[in-house]
Amino acid sequence: MTDIRYLAPPTLDEAVRAFAAAQGAARILAGGTDLLVQMRNGMVHPGTIIDIKKIPEMTSITEAADGSFWVGAAVSGAVLAEHPRFGKVWPGVLEAINLIGSTQVQGRASAGGNLCHGSPAADSVPAMVAAGAVLTIAGPNGRRTMPVEAFPVGPGRTSLAAGEILVGFTLPARPAGSGDAYLRMIPRTEMDIAVVGVGVSLTMAGGVVTAARVGLGAAAPTVLLVADAAKVLVGSKLDDAALNAAAAACSAACKPIDDKRGTIVYRTKVAAVLLKRAAAIAADRAQGRA
Amino acid sequence: MNAIDNKWIGKRTIRPDGADKVTGRAGYSADHNMPGQIWGRVLRSPHPHAVIRGIDTSKAEALPGVKAVVTAKDIVDFPLDKSVMLGIQDMRWMCRNVMAREKALFHGHPVAAVAAISEEVAEAACKLIEVDYEVLPHVIEIEDAIKPDAPILHDFVRHEGKPSNIATTMVNKLGDVEAGFAQADLIIERSFKTRPVHQGYIEPHACTVSYAADGRVTIWSSSQGQFMVRAMTSLLTGIPQSNIRAIPAEIGGGFGAKTIIYLEPVAVLLAKKSGRPVKMVMSRDEVFRATGPTSGSMSTVKIGVKNDGTIVAAQGTFYLQAGGLPGSPLRGPVGCSFSPYHIENVLSVGYDVVSNRSKVAAYRAPGAPLGAYATECVLDEIAEKLGMDKLELRLKNTAKPGGKTVYGATFGAITFKETVEAIKYHPHYTAPLDKNPSKGVVRGRGVASGFWFNAGGESSAQLNITEDGNVNVTTGHPDVGGSRASIANVTAELLGIDHSRISVLIGDTSSIGFSNLTGGSRVTFASAMVVTQSAEKVIGQLKERAAKIWKIDPEAVIWDNGEARPAGPNAGQFPPLTLKDLAAKANEMGGPIGAGVQLNTTGADPGFATHCVDVEVDVDLGIVRVLRYTAAQDVGRALHPDYVEGQIQGGVVQGIGWALSEEYLYNAKGQLDNASFLDYRMPVCSDVPMIEPIMLEIPNPKHPQGVRGVGEAPIVPPLAAIANAIHDALGKRFYSLPMSPPKVLAVIDG
Question: What ipTM, to 2 d.p.?
Fold first, then answer.
């Protein structure tokens, strides 16, 4: 019954000003695939909606000379999939983003929205954590950056301060011999939400892991960076002992709940299984086998 | 009629409703609008169990934009001490389901409804209604509801003389089960649990209702029976049936659940009070929370066999969830579980258990799948123990013509054996299965059979020849599965004219005679029968008209390939008269041409099915995927094969969901925790393989085209077939559904 003000500013500065001016009554709209559902369910009643899709910085994908990628927070999964280079460099991140929703939803849904929604089960986040993505955030006090794993602080809660907007992701330059992968467990084959999700990024040389990062989703109140799992992979040839140790570290990192989507016991076991499977795919990609 | 050279029967013609449906033009429940229409919303109980001490609607009524408010006191009361039945529905329970009366019996139970100028105002007004609840302890699961100290839902329910949540007991008996077990060499007894599952139709319940100044009511809604909508609305509002016209919209799925109503009488009362047309549309959340799933169950099945596999006795005990009001489908498991087999001694007992859940509604072969699940899993174990082929065990015991069933009927010609043999010799069953294709992956194959009663009942048809010599056929049944396409084929065949010259319509309650529900796998059977008789009458009229024109005896005229011809040279030499010729001369030769038939149809023999499935289990994640599925069924005659195959495939897919992923989940507060398609996990397309139907066309001798009901039998075997396949893969048996990944992994990890 209340009127909603809709703004679509052409610049980030204007968006930040309008967002601050609304004093908490505004919501940011990228694809809207979470926001519009929340509004329909009566969970949020924004007085102002600020559409960020007119802001070039937030809808662009750029590969820098050093090989790093900029992905604007409002870039949709479908647009990212069509980029000629991104999926070749970051296949695991792309497959994670492309798991959000259906084909129709992919035309709208963005990694930025997926992250800001704050769900521990968000598919793109463990892959971004594994990738070592760094966020750019803009607010009334200017810009700041933070690693993606520092962003979520609890279910539905993020470390964005009042008036701040997520601008986009910087994915670091990729050394030769790198590969990443994301796997999630869902009971169905499509149209479902992760019971557990694991992202793995590896760099390998001569069959030996030289760098590794592991992101774990839907197994704790926030998506986690599992440093202990990465640590045992580095220096290994991904032999059974290393994989078992990394899998055990993944299970140990789990602080899940029993809910309608899975049990504590099940999630803890599945995190270990997915770590091994995702590491195998990432290794194949790192070594040019897939 | 069953000849191979039929021109139309058995052909895959374009369905009459197809173009409208693929172009978005078809009008479903929520698509009808009226000038001046207002919106109705329902206030639902936030408590699973509470006495309603009072309802104050004054603040809601005072809200600007609110036009009417109704509560249970506006609905006709059916006192608890006197049963009034409409078909299988007891109006005592229907009136309390449509609007809570003495008590709110489940979270989401309607307690009041508002009509206002917009949905938002109606919703805001609902929040202003003050309900004085006395909250009571609630009970959700069967095992808790039958405990001696369980919260009792209804004071009037007694079991063995004591207050209880067991509302009804059904006992079916044949022979002497104790004496039977005494002869057995092997007895297996196992207990099983199934969860409530929702029919999962895509179209939510909705209606638009007009209450005119002269007291005449028009209802636009989708249902499995416009006459049921009229009758129930009449009973619950006190408006005579002659003043209610129920117009059937296209239906976006019902699967049994739209054989009762939720919104229509409420909307009528809101329209009557406000003087405005009222539209009501349920949200998906409301559909899950407050419309009927089918029962969850606890069953124990005991079967005794001789060493040669002969079944000598069978006993089944089935506890079914009814929801907040009595009326679970006991007849399904009690009557169907053992009926594919010839067994001399059977005892089958069902208990109807109320608890604080939404009242169950019919779902495809109501109750039969959960019974067959128990029986067919026990048979699988018996075959294993005897070292016998699973299909051989079934063939050894197939029901026989003249055999007596536990539910009282004596079988005529039956065709169960043919379904078992169809699987036994099918390349699916005979193909080798690689049981361990890769590390961590195992495969297995399972079989199971099933039975459904099928039904005849009341149907009406009217077949009219248009002035230009084409055909309109009207029946009284909502078309849920392609019945119009089948009727078009039958009419074209009988009249010998091109299919494109026939329009098949579904009449509203004022334009066609009474026709019972679309349910019980009865519509194609029954409506083809009345349409056939109508067509025969019309052909009789056409021959009379030709005889009159030719001035010969009507007996000397034949109807052949769409034309009247003299029966032979002795009848005279006349050029044939086509349907168009005769229609053009209709008025001068006696008036319009057309005929209708209204019947209580009989002769719907039961349906049998045997299924074979291959599954693959990811042993590290506990995920079960269905790789291949073959379903054999006696379909009598497939008037339109696409829609017979569609029924078989659809039933199997719903069975796969029931077996592997679907369940109602309640939280500790007694609230449904997964009231959405995201968390109520029905299979999606990519979860299932192409289901291969084997249509055995063994004509039903009691039907003019040989039709046998096909819609329900296909959902009966899948639960057990999949459980048996998982056992074949893992060597472990499962005794509860759904066999979801956490449960499967827990069993694997043992």
Answer: 0.94
